[in-house]
């Protein structure tokens, strides 16, 4: 997983069965057509932490040069982090934080003014990467799929399995683990939120 800090223009979208639709009040108010190109939208100046998509992570692994990879990055994913742009949106727009997997952020690289397109500058830099860790990618994927499967099992989302009597919600589970094991390396609240979200996403991808 690669976390990046972004500052520039762009907008939030919700992923639906019909495609992407505007997620912010400003865009909904100004854009009659939810599918309108990002270059034509009113996009505010946004700054905060995001996560690279799997495709962009793969490109980075191939190029080993973020400046090259950055040229093709068009969208970013929300993440759990102290500077998370999505957590800020969640508080301002009162969006449940557990909806994080349904949102995507599109970068506005240029804007149409009158009859021409004007380039828009933005800053994007890596602040954290676990992609270069010593753990084998296949082993990491196996661990995450196991975590995702266990979450489905105890939450009662597995077919024919009742919710575990001690499970109230994922948030409560994270609170308990953070309280009991928070002093252990890699078991902080934000790390658990990030790992759980990634585990559920990978399990969902396998199911598709």
Q: SSE layout and pairings?
A:
Layout: E1 2-16, E2 19-22, H1 25-30, E3 45-51, H2 54-63, H3 66-70, E4 75-76, H4 85-93, E5 103-107, E6 110-113, E7 116-119, E8 123-129, H5 137-154, H6 170-181, H7 189-207
Antiparallel strand pairs: 1-2, 1-3, 1-5, 1-8, 4-5, 6-7
Helix pairs in contact: 5-7
Commentary on this structure:
The chain is α+β, with helices and mostly antiparallel strands. The chain folds into 2 domains: 2-129, no CATH class; 137-207, no CATH class. Helices cover 38% and strands 23% of the residues. The protein is built from 7 helices and 8 strands; from the N terminus they run ββαβααβαββββααα. It has helices at residues 25-30, 54-63, 66-70, 85-93, 137-154, 170-181, 189-207; strands at 2-16, 19-22, 45-51, 75-76, 103-107, 110-113, 116-119, 123-129. The strands form 2 sheets. Strands 1, 2, 3, 4, 5 and 8 form a 6-stranded antiparallel β-sheet that branches. Strands 6-7 form a two-stranded antiparallel sheet. The protein is globular, with a radius of gyration of 19 Å. The model is unreliable at 25-34 (pLDDT under 50).
* Mean pLDDT over the residues: 82
Radius of gyration: 19 Å
Shape: globular
Q: How many structurally independent domains?
A: 2
Q: Largest sheet, if any? A: 6 strands, antiparallel
Stretches where pLDDT is under 50 for at least 5 consecutive residues are: 25-34
What's the helical proportion of residues?
Answer: 25-40%
List how many beta strands DSSP finds.
Answer: 8
Structural class: alpha+beta
- Count of discrete alpha- or pi-helical segments spanning 4 or more residues: 7
Cα separation of the termini: 21 Å
Q: What sequence of helices (H) and strands (E) makes up the elements?
A: EEHEHHEHEEEEHHH
In terms of DSSP E residues, the strand content is 15-25%
């Amino acid at each position: 997983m690669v976390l990046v800090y972004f500052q520039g223009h762009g907008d939030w979208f919700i992923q639906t069965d019909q495609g992407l639709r505007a997620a912010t009040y400003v865009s909904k108010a100004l854009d009659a057509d939810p599918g309108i190109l990002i270059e034509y939208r009113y996009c505010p100046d946004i700054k905060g932490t995001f996560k690279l998509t799997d495709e962009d992570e793969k490109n980075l692994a191939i190029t080993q040069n973020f400046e090259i990879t950055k040229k093709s990055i068009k969208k970013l994913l929300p993440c759990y982090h102290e500077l998370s742009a999505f957590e800020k949106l969640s508080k301002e727009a009162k969006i449940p934080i557990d909806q994080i997997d349904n949102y995507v952020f599109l970068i506005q690289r240029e804007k149409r003014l009158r009859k021409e397109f004007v380039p828009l500058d933005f800053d994007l830099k890596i602040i954290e990467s676990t992609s270069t860790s010593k753990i084998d990618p296949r082993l990491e994927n196996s661990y995450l799929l196991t975590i995702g499967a266990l979450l489905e099992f105890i939450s009662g989302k597995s077919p024919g399995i009742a919710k575990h009597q001690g499970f109230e919600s994922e948030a409560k589970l994270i609170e308990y683990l953070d309280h009991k094991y928070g002093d252990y390396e890699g078991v902080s609240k934000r790390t658990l939120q990030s790992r759980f979200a990634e585990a559920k996403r990978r399990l969902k991808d396998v199911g598709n």
